[in-house]
Every structure is written in structure tokens, then in C-alpha cells.
Amino acid sequence: MAIKTYAALLRGINVSGHKRVPMAELRTLVEGLGHGGVRTHLQSGNAVFTAERTDEETLAAGLRAAIEEHFGFTVDVLVRDHAYLKAVVDACPFPAADLEPKQLHVTYFSGPVDPSRFSSVDEPAYLPEEFRLGDRVLYLYAPDGLGRSKLADVLARPRLTKGLVATSRNWNTVTRLEEMTRA
């Protein structure tokens, strides 16, 4: 079987002291699942690893179960391969090279997103902030940063993401994970 490189995106860990997952322990946990080349990026739950080619949901489920067993709490996990991460970077509808990385964010979803979910958002009311949907992602341009974004608050409402796992990363992390997963 061929070996592929993946990124695991953990949702909601190490935020305000909740769901604490030390990166050294996460690396050991991923290695214990039989994966190789394990590296982490930042403290916010990003792990890169190699595995024999398998489907992303199976890899995510294995990691979710291992985290719950080891740490005693549930964490949503998305796993994406390099080709997908590269496609997300390449498809960015905003001029990423002209923006500060803190102005651009990507929310990864566990599955496809029907644009009608977001049809109730009054986009002109939030300008100059903007969002665009892509392949299982939402791109958010927030010129004053995510912390001051009123549009980000609206886009995170549970009714818009119901039934999906959603986790966001800033543009620096998006591009770094793409780089780290290159074979």
C-alpha cells in the first residue's frame, strides 16, 4: 500500500484551559496508532502524520477514540490529505498574498455544505467582511481580525453548521499545514 501524509485538525482543545491536550502526548498517541512522521503545529490541535492509504473518516475515528480513551473527553477530529489541503489554498477566493494572515481564516467542515444554509446571512450588512464557500470549507475575510469579526459570530451559529463538525484555522496555519503535508 502507498503511504500518504495527512493533517489531523482537532476542534476545541487547549482553549482557556479546557480539554487540555499536550502536543507531546498527542504525538505519542498518534504514533501509538501506527502512524509515522508525526509532527504537531502550535498548541491548537494540528498534527501531521503518514499512514498507509486509507479513508480520512477512518483515520479521524481512530484518533477520536484514542483521545477519548487517553484523555477522558471527546474531541472532534477532521483528517485531510495533502492534495485536499493544497486545493483549499489554491482555491482561496481572496487575495491571500495581499492580506495579513490574521485577516483570512478557513473553517473546515466534516462534509459538503449546501450554500442554502447561509442564504439567511445578510452579507452586505457585514461589509467589508466577506465569506465564500468552497469544497467542505468556508473562507472568511475579516479585515480587523477574527476577534473583532461580527460576521464570524453569525457564521458560527449552530443552525448554520448543524450536523457538521467545523473547525477554523487562520491563514498562517492553513498554509503551514499544506507545507507540512507535502511528501
TrEMBL record:
Pfam families: DUF1697 (PF08002). This is DUF1697 domain-containing protein.
